[in-house]
């Protein structure tokens, strides 16, 4: 393990201990979803330790910069547990959550119900084109798009039109580098976003070199 990763894990312990029902985490070894109370009043069912870490990054660390969200519509591509959708549901008028995994969609709906969230639309669907998504669901302006889809982000944004991008105020990505070709695609993605008028902020993942966060906002 890299020294930087070890330091990150150690420094994260106070956040985890203070932010979740830490004493319930051992129940995960029973191989059943465990309900955790999260700081901020959220209640989320998780399946494993990776899910707990995701909650830490999304809700406690606010890695997607959404606590000041003002957009009318939020698109959650790769919604998984629904934690991000739940986090933004208080301030957004409409939230659309997409995930191709049937089991995750079921768990997300359970989490939405647990948190009394009624303005999130859930779709068991693999998003392949941002243009098609905006057209199919008739999305207008003032949108926030969050993307965490295990490397599919490059295909989703390939050939994205200026018309679609003009409807988006902010984009938050978890970027994946599973091969050299994806690093080339990442450079092209950044270039396209800058050309469309976005200011980019990159944050390296402290543990995994093949991951990073990319935040795009209107200049």
UniProtKB/TrEMBL annotation:
PANTHER family: METHYLTRANSFERASE, FKBM FAMILY PROTEIN (PTHR34203), SLL1173 PROTEIN (PTHR34203:SF15)
Gene3D superfamilies: Vaccinia Virus protein VP39
Source organism, top-level taxon: Bacteria
Methyltransferase FkbM domain boundaries: 120-200
Organism of origin: Candidatus Woesebacteria bacterium GWA1_41_8
Protein name: Methyltransferase FkbM domain-containing protein
Stored InterPro entries: FkbM_mtfrase, SAM-dependent_MTase, SAM-dependent_MTases_sf
One Pfam family in the UniProt entry: Methyltransf_21
């Amino acid at each position: 393990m890299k020294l930087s990763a070890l330091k990150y894990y150690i420094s994260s312990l106070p956040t985890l201990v203070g932010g979740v029902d830490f004493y319930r985490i051992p129940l995960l070894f029973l191989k059943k979803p465990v309900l955790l109370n999260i700081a901020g009043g959220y209640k989320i069912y998780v399946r494993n330790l990776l899910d707990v870490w995701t909650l830490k990054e999304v809700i406690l660390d606010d890695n997607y910069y959404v606590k000041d969200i003002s957009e009318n519509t939020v698109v959650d591509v790769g919604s998984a547990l629904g934690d991000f959708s739940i986090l933004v549901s208080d301030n957004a008028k409409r939230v659309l959550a997409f995930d191709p995994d049937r089991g995750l969609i079921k768990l997300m709906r359970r989490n939405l119900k647990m948190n009394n969230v009624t303005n999130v639309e859930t779709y068991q669907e693999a998003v392949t084109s941002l243009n098609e998504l905006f057209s199919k669901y008739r999305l207008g302006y003032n949108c926030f798009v969050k993307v965490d889809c295990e490397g599919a982000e490059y295909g989703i944004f390939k050939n994205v039109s200026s018309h679609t991008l003009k409807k988006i105020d902010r984009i938050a990505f978890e970027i994946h580098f599973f091969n050299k070709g994806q690093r080339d695609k990442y450079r092209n993605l950044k270039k396209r976003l800058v050309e469309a008028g976005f200011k980019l902020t990159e944050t390296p993942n402290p543990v995994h070199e093949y991951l990073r966060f990319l935040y795009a906002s209107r200049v």
